[in-house]
Each structure stands twice: as structure tokens, then as C-alpha cells.
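Subject: design request, 249 residues
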């Protein structure tokens, strides 16, 4: 009996661990089973969770659990951790900062890793069978974008952050043949132009909170913890059955 139980538990452990992984880069990480990124002393809610919301709507929904809008300085620190081709991201209300990195065949860039970590908020590929003038499915255009800001100039406007992975765009060339255009990696911190009630297509809201700032909201139970509870339960059940059988005998 015990051999069967332990064999089953081992199989369950292997299956669950295969589905859980850690996405991490330079002090920021997210368990694939969670929608919270941890880094820089903060928890960041994945941007795709609030996709299509306004700042007001997101705060109404999440502020009670300790979430607040990411500030200019917090977003700057995040971008400087990933760099995206530059190491001098800084916080200014009415200035747009950007960085372009050439296309590469690899899909392991820090841009791609960032999108995996914070969630994809927009993508586009070819929708027609001809596949002209759009991004091909093997290397589509993907983006992770969010509204954030501090409104330090008190004009009621907030900023946008965006990270785009590189892509291949198919078009009809001058030679009369299909050609592929390489679209670069891109990271931008836009100037402030979004209001509290505005929604921006393909964008979420960058929400942060201090780590463990909301004890009333339990963090996702880790796979090892869950399996420990399952294992103890199975062992207890087997022990009880063994006692019962001994007593009956």
C-alpha cells in the first residue's frame, strides 16, 4: 500500500513541477503559476491583468489589497534593471525616452523575457492567406505596455511604458517578390498624456505594492507547499486504513 502511495505522490510531484517554472532577470522574478512579479522591494501585478482598464477603474478594483499606481521613479528603476539597450532611463514628465535594438533570430532577448514576465498586452500577425503587409506568425509583433506615473507637474496626465519584441514583417517588394522586413526590439517611456479615466487599447495599468503589504490577500500557494499537504494527507489516509485492517483482523 505504502509503495503505491509513494509512487503516486512522486508522479504527482513530477507532473506539477513540470508545469511550474521561474522567470527571472536581474533581481526581478515571477513564478509561472502566479500573476505577481517580485523585484526591487516591490510586487508588480502583471500588466495583462488590467489590460483595457483606466487608472481609476484599476484602483477601484485593486487598491483595497494594497495596490497603487507605479510612480515615475519605480518605472525608471524597472527599466534600468532590464536596460533594453541603454542604462540611463530617467524620470521626466513631458519627455519621451526610447531605445531600439536590432532584430535577432533568437527569441531569448531581455525584451522577450520582460514580456513573458509582465504579460503580453498586444499582438498582431497576418490575418489573411496572402500574408502581405503584416507580421508573420513565426515571429509576430508582441508588446507589453502599461500606464503609470506620478503627475509631478500636476497637469492631470500620466505616462505610458512599452516594451516590444522584435518581429518579421512580410511585404511585397519592388522586385515583385515577397520580402521580409526585420522590425527591431523597442522600449519606450512616453511623455504624459493619459488621464485618470482614459483607457488605451493594448495597455494595462502598472500597479505595485510593498512586498507582503496586504496580509488579508493570500499569495499563491507554491507547488512544493501544496504537494507537501497532499503527501501528508495520503500518508495519513494509508496509516488509518492500516490501523483499521489490523483492528478488524
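Subject: RE: design request

Done. Sequence follows.
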Amino acid at each position: 500500500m505504502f509503495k503505491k502511495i509513494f509512487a503516486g505522490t512522486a508522479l504527482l510531484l513530477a507532473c506539477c513541477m513540470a508545469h511550474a517554472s521561474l522567470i527571472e532577470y536581474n533581481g526581478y522574478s515571477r513564478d509561472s503559476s502566479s500573476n505577481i512579479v517580485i523585484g526591487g522591494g516591490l510586487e508588480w501585478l502583471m500588466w495583462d491583468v488590467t489590460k483595457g482598464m483606466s487608472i481609476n477603474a484599476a484602483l477601484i478594483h485593486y487598491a483595497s489589497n494594497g495596490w497603487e499606481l507605479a510612480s515615475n521613479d519605480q518605472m525608471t528603476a524597472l527599466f534600468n534593471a532590464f536596460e533594453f539597450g541603454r542604462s540611463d532611463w530617467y524620470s521626466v514628465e513631458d519627455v519621451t525616452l526610447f531605445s531600439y535594438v536590432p532584430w535577432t533570430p533568437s527569441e531569448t532577448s531581455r525584451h522577450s523575457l520582460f514580456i513573458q514576465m509582465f504579460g503580453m498586452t498586444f499582438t498582431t500577425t497576418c490575418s489573411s492567406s496572402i500574408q502581405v503587409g503584416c507580421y508573420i506568425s513565426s515571429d509576430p509583433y508582441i508588446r507589453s505596455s502599461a500606464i503609470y506615473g506620478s503627475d509631478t507637474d500636476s497637469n492631470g496626465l500620466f505616462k505610458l511604458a512599452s516594451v516590444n519584441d522584435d518581429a518579421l514583417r512580410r511585404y511585397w517588394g519592388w522586385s515583385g517578390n515577397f520580402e521580409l522586413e526585420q522590425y527591431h526590439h523597442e522600449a519606450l517611456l512616453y511623455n504624459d498624456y493619459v488621464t485618470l479615466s482614459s483607457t488605451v487599447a493594448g495597455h494595462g495599468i502598472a500597479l505595485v505594492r510593498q512586498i507582503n503589504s496586504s496580509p488579508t490577500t493570500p499569495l499563491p500557494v507554491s507547488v512544493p507547499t501544496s504537494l507537501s499537504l497532499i503527501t501528508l494527507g495520503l500518508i495519513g489516509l494509508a496509516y488509518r486504513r492500516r490501523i483499521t485492517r489490523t483492528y478488524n483482523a
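The longest helix spans residues 223-248.
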